Amino acid sequence: MIRVAIAGCAGRMGKTVVEAVGAADDMEVACGIDPHGSDAAFPVYPDVEAAVGGTEFDVLVDFTQPDVVAGNLAVALPAGIDCVVGTTGLSNETLERLAQTAAGKACLFYAPNFTTGAVLMMQFAKAAAPYFPEAEVIEFHHANKKDAPSGTAVRTAQIIGESRGFESSAPGSETEIAGCEGARGALVDGVPVHSVRSMGYVASQEVVFGSMGQSLTIRHDSWDRTSYMPGVLLGIRSVGEQEGLIVGLENFMA
Ligand SMILES: NC(=O)C1=CN([C@@H]2O[C@H](COP(=O)(O)OP(=O)(O)OC[C@H]3O[C@@H](n4cnc5c(N)ncnc54)[C@H](OP(=O)(O)O)[C@@H]3O)[C@@H](O)[C@H]2O)C=CC1
Ligand SMILES: O=C(O)C1=N[C@H](C(=O)O)C[C@H](O)C1
């Protein structure tokens, strides 16, 4: 049995992870971590330090918020606890620094998106990028999302920037004639990224490539948070055999 602690267990993703872990044959919810607690059948602690002191567990899953996750990892990793992180907003440099605190005793696995569809969208974008001088990302999320742009959009833009190997001919975030600031999006690694927030969405993204006379649009939609659960469970099952920093679910997909 893999004993799993879930940080953010009372949140939108945390609740779904509690159900998925509880339904899996090879794992159990050891405890939760959330400032408001819950009426759950497992202990819920106010912070990770209290959880480490109060309950034994093998893996910490984190779906909290950008200003919380680094503190959680700074406690769990030096204690030798493998971490599966979905919380977005941490830079690559911060992830690398935190992974080093595990000193080879634990794995830090971060996936900006746990759906297979979004991973494939990013891989298709990587393949397309060298052939199109123009690329833009439009992401659509529910109105309660705290960060913008999304972690998936940032990762997609980084992949496009790395893969295309040339400077974009897109105008970037400037317009030739001054209009409204931000109309051309935020530039991430030379790729304009546009963030839409509406109660109508869970999470969607379009990657729009262009060259003379043609465009290619790659789109992914998450309609329900259960879409992330196979990826989260795969991460929990995989980290025990790993150490150091691993970024992206593609590392574990067969
Ligand atoms: N990688 C992926 O595939 C996905 C990543 N995400 C990311 O996961 C994160 C969470 O998203 P979502 O579930 O929608 O957010 P929610 O706001 O619904 O959930 C976050 C939970 O964490 C709680 N929390 C706040 N502070 C702490 C703390 N110090 N310790 C433990 N828990 C704390 C919050 O409590 P309170 O509300 O009281 O502050 C809340 O219950 C976001 O960064 C989002 O981008 C989301 C979906 C998929
Ligand atoms: O906050 C969300 O909901 C999501 N966050 C992740 C992100 O920032 O990319 C993953 C997914 O898009 C849902």
UniProtKB/TrEMBL annotation:
Compartment annotation:
Cytoplasm
Residues of the active site: H141, K145
- Residue ranges constituting the Dihydrodipicolinate reductase C-terminal domain according to the UniProt record: 117-252
Location, primary (coarse class): cytoplasm
The UniProt family comment states: Belongs to the DapB family.
Q: In which pathway does it act?
A: Amino-acid biosynthesis; L-lysine biosynthesis via DAP pathway; (S)-tetrahydrodipicolinate from L-aspartate: step 4/4
Q: What is this protein called?
A: 4-hydroxy-tetrahydrodipicolinate reductase
Catalytic reactions on record: (S)-2,3,4,5-tetrahydrodipicolinate + NADP(+) + H2O = (2S,4S)-4-hydroxy-2,3,4,5-tetrahydrodipicolinate + NADPH + H(+); (S)-2,3,4,5-tetrahydrodipicolinate + NAD(+) + H2O = (2S,4S)-4-hydroxy-2,3,4,5-tetrahydrodipicolinate + NADH + H(+)
| EC number(s) stated in the UniProt entry for this protein | 1.17.1.8
Sequence positions that bind (S)-2,3,4,5-tetrahydrodipicolinate: H142, G151, T152
What's the source species' lineage? Answer: Bacteria, Bacillati, Actinomycetota, Coriobacteriia, Eggerthellales
Entry superkingdom: Bacteria
InterPro entries for this protein: DapB_C (IPR022663), DapB_N (IPR000846), DapB_N_CS (IPR022664), DHDPR_bac (IPR023940), NAD(P)-bd_dom_sf (IPR036291)
Dihydrodipicolinate reductase N-terminal domain residues: 2-114
**Role summary:** Catalyzes the conversion of 4-hydroxy-tetrahydrodipicolinate (HTPA) to tetrahydrodipicolinate.
Q: Which UniProt keywords apply?
A: Amino-acid biosynthesis, Cytoplasm, Diaminopimelate biosynthesis, Lysine biosynthesis, NAD, NADP, Oxidoreductase
On whether NADP is a keyword of this UniProt record, the answer is yes
- Describe the subunit structure: Homotetramer.
